[in-house]
Amino acid sequence: MKTVKVILLTLMLIVLLGGGYLAWILLGSKTSNPNNYRIIGDIPTPWGYERIKGDDPAYSVFLRSLPLRGKGSKVMLFTGGESRFQSLNYAVVDLPLLSNAEQCADICMRLRAEYLFQTGQYSRIRFQNVDGKTIRYGGGSSRKAFECYLKNLYGVASTFSLSREMKKRKLSDMQPGDVFVYPARYGQKYGHAVMVVDVAINRQGKKVFLLAEGNTPARNIHIMRNFENPFRSPWFTLNEDADNLLFSVFHYKSNDLKTF
Fold first, then answer.
1. Are 109 and 177 in contact (CB under 8 A)?
2. For the purposes of burial, counting CB atoms within 10 Å of the CB of 28, is it exposed (0-12), middle (13-18) or buried (19 or more)?
3. How far apart are CA 241 and CA 251, in angstroms?
């Protein structure tokens, strides 16, 4: 009799969990910012996790302070209209694009540059172009000069230059502001880059993290949704021993994690 009860309870649990998963697929996965969070830092961590300060606490605070557009906001193309595959978007970052050239690697440089600009660290705003030449910003506190610099940078930098200029970071040392980036590989026409915008850790030392991306053609920066664990979305769980990593629909190698 006990065995029958256990089986029935197990079946009921499977049905409930399955129903919850189906509801998330049908509703949650199609709704941007479902809880109407104001900033990235409002997105709650999974139970038992706490946000880390990071190597540069001010940078971590800046990324967590990035504003989010309201519930149901769509990822829009720079040229107008909605981008495809809206279900990949968990929340849209409320930061206007500067040009149609602001794509995946460019938004990683944009967010890094915005932090340095807003904290007055103008001399540290510099990135390499595809030829390996360092392009330095020299416009001081002028927002117009800053945006002009970024627009010019987008035309001469790429995932190739970004991957080459950044330093490798061990997965176990992941920090807010790090970037997963790879240039075009054999059999692939394009590379891709996504930024780690938040990291949290539990007492066992296990890390989870949030990712933000742009894409081609240019579209709003958005927080990526985690399809592997819908009940923890949009947090990804870090597997420090993995050689291959799957984030949404993008594959990375363990040595693709880089830091500025």
1. no
2. middle
3. 15
Nearest CA-CA partner of 256 in 154, 184, 157 = 184
Structure tokens at 144: 């117009």
**pLDDT higher than threshold 90 for residue 250:** no
Helix or strand holding residue 210 (H, E): strand 207-213
Tell me how far apart the alpha carbons of residues 222 and 237 are, in angstroms, rounded to a whole number: 19
Alpha-carbon distances of 120 from 135, 145, 167, rounded to whole Å: 18, 14, 24
Q: Sign of the C-alpha dihedral, residues 85, 91, 94, 98?
A: negative
State how far the Cα of 65 lies from the Cα of 69, in Å rounded to an integer.
13
Q: Which residues contact 189 (CB under 8 A, 6 or more apart)?
A: none
CA R_g for the chain? 20
Question: Token match 């176990």: residue?
Answer: 172
Under DSSP, is residue 171 helix (H, G, I), strand (E, B) or coil? helix
CA distance 163 to 166: 6
Q: Does pTM surpass 0.85?
A: yes
Beta carbons of 191 and 130 less than 8 angstroms apart = no
What is the band of 216 on the pLDDT scale with cuts at 50, 70, 90? very high
Q: What are the Cα distances from residue 41, in Å, to 87, 89, 164, 183?
A: 21, 17, 30, 30
